[in-house]
Design goal:
Blueprint lengths: L9 H38 L3 H27 L9 E7 L3 H22 L2 E9 L5 E9 L3 H5 L4 E8 L8 E12 L14 E6 L15 E6 L4 E5 L5 H24 L3 H6 L9 E6 L5 E4 L5 E2 L2 H5 L4 H14 L1
Parallel strand pairs: 4-9
Antiparallel strand pairs: 1-3, 1-5, 2-3, 4-5, 6-7, 7-8, 9-10, 10-11
Helix pairs in contact: 1-2
């Protein structure tokens, strides 16, 4: 990265920067824990002469060391084959009408706030607004060390219970939205896609205004006929670039399906999501008659619903990852 002309090739430079971030994500917690442990050794030696003078400092340092060891333990849990990769996150409104579309937009905001906390970058791939409020679906590419390792914990149906702002009688409404997460693969991923298996449609990018509007039919929708998988991209003004991005997403989804078939767990891969309605949720966000966010897979919960909706999601991800590690 310090070489002259490093930034002349922006795409190659970005790849190296991401690799450096991943490496630092592994090394830095180890170095930090080692430094704190070394400081504790020095404090213990000093305490042999005056224990009271360093007791508080030792206790503080031990707390810091425990925090760093927790980070290391969590990083070990992100040891899956594709955990280090970027992630493609898709949010889809489910049962619940306009409330579900609004809930999907709330989830998008929640994940964007989490990305800010993690210092992750993102690019919008596709955005489908709803007619009245909220969004029908949205896809974003999340860039950061172990993005997929973190976000794979979020795949499934998310349920919201609240007093509907769209109901004149102020009745309680239950809404659903699904989260799908796949890793972003390199261009050399080996997935055979036949032209005869694809249906490609072009359309004009839609939206309420601003970046979501395009005056040409540059948006792309690709349907993989054998599996029924549909991907779309309307982020770029170039139809060629949108097609390339859509194909990358399709390849990632097909690769995941093939892996699942190989492990005889295709049902398990999509089983967490299922129908986007009752009985399939992985997490409930209850705002009325009480306030609680609870993950139904792990039992982890948080009564501060606003903090969760503002992006405090890592504890839920950690709880799920720890559970998966115990199963293994």
């Amino acid at each position: 990265m310090s070489e002259a002309g490093f930034w002349n090739d922006q795409e190659a430079a970005s790849t190296v920067v991401q690799a450096a971030k991943r490496a630092k994500g592994v090394v830095d917690p180890v170095k930090s824990a080692e430094a704190i442990a070394s400081d504790i050794e020095v404090l213990v030696e000093m305490g042999e002469e005056d224990e009271d003078a360093v007791a508080d400092d030792i206790e503080t340092s031990l707390d810091k060391l425990e925090t760093e060891l927790d980070k290391l333990e969590f990083r070990v849990m992100l040891g899956g084959e594709h955990d280090h990769r970027n992630a493609i996150l898709n949010i889809q409104a489910g049962a619940g009408g306009v409330d579900a579309c609004d809930w999907a937009e709330m989830l998008l905001r929640m994940y964007l706030r989490w990305l800010e906390r993690m210092d992750f970058e993102f690019e919008e791939i596709d955005y489908q607004p709803a007619e009245e409020a909220g969004i029908k679906s949205v896809s974003i590419l999340v860039k950061g060390p172990f993005a997929y390792g973190y976000l794979k914990a979020e795949q499934g149906v998310h349920r919201l219970v609240r007093i509907s702002p769209f109901d004149a009688q102020n009745r309680r409404q239950t809404s659903f939205a699904s989260i799908e997460v796949v890793p972003e693969f390199d261009e050399d991923i080996e997935v055979e896609i036949l032209d005869k298996d694809l249906r490609v449609d072009t359309f004009r990018a839609s939206g309420a205004g601003g970046q979501h509007v395009n005056k040409t039919d540059s948006a792309i929708r690709i349907t993989h006929i054998p599996t029924g998988i549909v991907v779309s991209c309307q982020n770029e003004r170039s139809q060629h670039k949108n097609r390339a991005t859509a194909m990358k997403v399709l390849k990632a989804k097909l690769y995941q399906v093939e892996l699942a078939k190989r492990e005889e767990s295709l049902k398990a891969f999509y089983g967490d999501r299922g129908s986007i309605s009752w009985g399939n949720q992985i997490r409930s966000y209850v705002l009325q008659p009480y306030q609680m966010v609870k993950d139904l897979r792990t039992g982890h919960e948080n009564g501060n619903t606003q903090a969760v909706l503002d992006g405090e999601l890592t504890p839920f991800m950690e709880a799920w990852l720890r559970g998966q590690r115990r199963k293994k």
